[in-house]
Write a structure and sequence with these properties.
Helix 1 packs parallel to helix 4, helix 1 packs antiparallel against helix 7 and helix 9 packs parallel to helix 11. The protein starts with 7 loop residues before the first strand and ends in a 19-residue tail after the last helix. With 399 residues, it is mainly alpha-helical. It has a two-stranded antiparallel sheet. The chain contains 13 helices and two strands; from the N terminus they run E-H-H-H-H-H-H-H-E-H-H-H-H-H-H. It is globular and about 55 Å long.
Length: 399
């Protein structure tokens, strides 16, 4: 059934659905994070260059980023609850292909399938989080996204414990998580199907429809440009940390692959903690201040990172993770309030851009690492965070 009307949310927050969709996001991103966690093994097994590692990331993230805006726009007009299940099936297929792929091109195909699954999952899951928010949209997005961040943190650790010592084929073990996610998403999709149609009821609030727009088209346009600049700075820097932090640690401190994965887990764990804090802070004090403090506040710590001891590197990476994590949920909710009534489209666009920018950043940084070295990459990428200064020019969207 078509639902061209705006999305609604109940007067109370449906935490059971929010936690279910967060756990599904965790399992989804564990599967995705296995890709980057396997980079050192794949590089050694198939004699890949840093540029080829970047191309693998680009293949995954472009398939996710290109499709997500179209998926988001489509589901705004034609909500399809079972899309969540289909997306997870694509991810599971890609995971199994990666487990048994034995050349560079098969690996590219495998990660592309995982990207397709991601492009279906994220916009529809964001709509579910919005629907179950009870008006606490920042909190709902944080609960949803913290699952993904936890999954991204746990994935490399599990890969270090299971796949690194046992071999590439043991990636297939993670298919169990995909099956578990499908079971959870079956429950979520049933709830979604019942609640996605606007109901005229005293305990329902309609959101996304406004008789008069909050801002002029010009204000919305330049605000979107600013948000895109902030996305660029955040996700290019995150590409260096998520994909090359282990190589940085191995080269500078002569760690083993397993040791470097543990330190990556510390960084990604901090990202998860920062994510859950960012939503409620944005709900209470405003999204603009969270966006500004998140990206710009991480810059001085990122600039120090390449020049300190191993112990201080871990401390600084945790601080960076805590600060930078809250930016995306604040940006996403800010954008949905800037362009009301288009939750799926906005989520698809911004999730898509996050994957696309991360993928392009990874490819460019991989090429730069081949040319100049991994230490050079980590010395220049922190300056991207200074773009956070432009958040000052965003209009205040809350009353």
């Amino acid at each position: 059934m078509k639902n061209t009307a705006s999305l609604t949310y109940a007067s109370t927050t449906t935490y059971s659905i929010l936690f279910a969709i967060s756990v599904s996001h965790l399992l989804n991103d564990v599967i995705q994070s296995v890709i980057s966690a396997m980079y050192p093994m794949l590089k050694e097994n198939y004699a890949l260059s840093f540029a080829q590692i970047g191309i693998i990331t680009l293949a995954y993230q472009l398939t996710a980023s290109i499709l997500q805006p179209f998926v988001g726009s489509y589901i705004d007009k034609n909500p399809f609850p079972k899309a969540l299940i289909f997306g997870m099936c694509f991810s599971m297929t890609g995971l199994l292909t990666l487990a048994f792929g034995r050349n560079f091109y098969t690996i590219l195909g495998a990660v592309s399938l995982v990207g397709v699954g991601s492009s279906i999952f994220h916009p529809e899951a964001s709509r579910v989080a919005h629907l179950a928010s009870g008006g606490k949209k920042g909190l709902a997005q944080s609960i949803f996204q913290v699952g993904g961040n936890l999954g991204s943190a746990i994935g490399p650790l599990l890969a270090a414990l299971i796949v690194v010592p046992l071999g590439q084929s043991y990636i297939s073990v993670f298919a169990i998580m995909a099956v578990f996610a499908i079971i959870i998403l079956s429950y979520v999709s049933k709830w979604y199907e019942v609640n996605m149609i606007p109901k005229k009821s005293p305990n329902m609030k309609q959101v996304g429809v406004s008789s008069t727009p909050k801002f002029t088209k010009n204000t919305i346009a330049y605000s979107i440009v600013i948000l895109l600049g902030l996305m660029f700075s955040k996700f290019f820097y995150m590409a260096s940390m998520s994909n090359y932090y282990t190589f940085f640690l191995i080269e500078k401190f002569h760690l083993t692959v397993q040791q470097s994965q543990i330190y990556l887990f510390a960084f990604l764990g901090a990202v998860a903690v920062g994510t859950i804090a960012g939503g409620p802070i944005g709900d209470r004090y405003g999204r603009k201040i969270v966006i500004w403090a998140s990206i710009l506040g991480a810059a001085p710590f990122a600039m120090l990172l390449p020049y300190v001891s191993l112990e201080m590197t871990v401390v600084l990476s945790v601080i960076i993770g805590l600060l930078i994590a809250s930016a995306f949920s604040a940006i996403l909710v800010y954008a949905t309030e800037l362009i009301p009534g288009k939750v799926g489209s906005v989520a698809g666009l911004f999730f898509g851009l996050s994957f696309g920018m991360g993928g392009i950043g990874s490819a460019l940084l991989g090429w730069l690492a081949d040319m100049k070295g991994i230490m050079y990459v980590f010395s220049i990428t922190p300056y991207l965070l200074l773009i956070g200064l432009v958040a000052y020019f965003l209009p205040k969207i809350e009353r």
